[in-house]
Please model this.
Amino acid sequence: MAYEDAILAAIAKENRFFENDRGLAEYIHDESLNKKVYSLYPSVEIVYGELWGVMTAGLKESLSGEGNRWDSRIYDWTEQ
Model:
């Protein structure tokens, strides 16, 4: 994809400004989610021939729970 390299370069540039190694996870204010997610880093990937915005999550424990589903095939957090 033509935009993939440009987007990845912009993300890498912005990632330098995080105050710690948690990335965007430092902005999680929900205590129960904050206990489960150590780090969150944005990126893009080509999935099924399309460019998708994705988040790479470093987890301390599973995100599964009542009413939520993590679908790693399409990198989407949805409510059931």
Observations:
- The chain has two helices and four strands.
- Residues 4-15 form the longest helix (12 residues).
- Residues 4-79 form one domain.
- The mean pLDDT is 79.
